[in-house]
Amino acid sequence: MTVLWILLAIAAVLGIYVWRTYNTMVRSRNLVDEGWSGIDVQLKRRADLVLNLVETVKGYAKHEKELFEKVTQARAAAVSAGSVGERAQAENALTGTIRSLFAVAENYPELKANTNFLDLQQNLGNLEAEIQMARRYYNGAVRAYNSLIQVFPNNMLAGPFGFTKRDYFEAAEEDRAVPKVQF
After folding, report:
1. CA gap 33, 39 in Å, rounded
2. What is residue 172's predicted lDDT score, i.e. its pLDDT?
3. Helix/strand/coil (H, E, C) string of the chain?
4. Torsion (CA) 123, 124, 125, 127 in degrees, nearest 10
5. CA 131, CA 126: separation in Å to the nearest integer?
6. pLDDT tens across 85-132, in order?
7. Residues near 37 by Cβ (< 8 Å), separated by ≥ 6?
């Protein structure tokens, strides 16, 4: 009879452990999904803002057609990208074309003084800061989730319940380089 009670107690403890671990993994996965949703919202806002920026610059720099096409293509690729890795790569390409657009704008003093352009540029700067915050939140949630499902003994439950490792939203190599300052 005591053996039966011991076995029932062990089964109850294991059941409670599986129940709590599963629920913790679900909550962690939901935080990752929430983080990705935050990035997605900010990136969509940026994509819309980029169109307005391109149209404003087009009015002043009509002969920069190739650059406008590159920005538009990069924006389309970013909007249509699927996985986190594809989206990160497409967004990094879009960031590069936006930098080129601002470099062209430097050659047009009347454009740099245009209030629409200045407003768009400031909004884009603010939006980039929000995107960075959303990326940090997402990557933190991914780190916690990946750690949760990879540690022992949780890893024995994660696989059978369908919990898989998530990818980080990483910056492009050129964004990681230390900028050179020369006088």
Report:
1. 10
2. 65
3. CHHHHHHHHHHHHHHHHHHHHHHHHHHHHHHHHHHHHHHHHHHHHHHHHHHHHHHHHHHHCCCCHHHHHHHHHHHHHHHHCCCHHHHHHHHHHHHHHHHHHHHHHCCCHHHHCCHHHHHHHHHHHHHHHHHHHHHHHHHHHHHHHHHHHHCCCHHHHHCCCCCCCCCCCCCCHHHHCCCCCCC
4. 90
5. 9
6. 888 888 888 888 888 888 877 777 777 667 777 788 888 888 888 988
7. none
**Section 140-164 average pLDDT:** 94
For 17-169, CATH number out of 3.40.50.300, 1.20.1440.20, 3.40.50.261, 1.10.1740.10 equals: 1.20.1440.20
Banded model confidence at residue 175, pLDDT cuts 50, 70, 90: low
Tell me the C-alpha distance between 126 and 42, whole Å: 11
pLDDT in tens, 13-32: 999 999 999 999 999 999 99
Q: What is the pTM of this model?
A: 0.73
- Give the start-to-end residue ranges of the domains of the chain: 17-169
51 neighbors 99 (Cβ within 8 angstroms): no
Q: What is the mean pLDDT of the chain?
A: 84
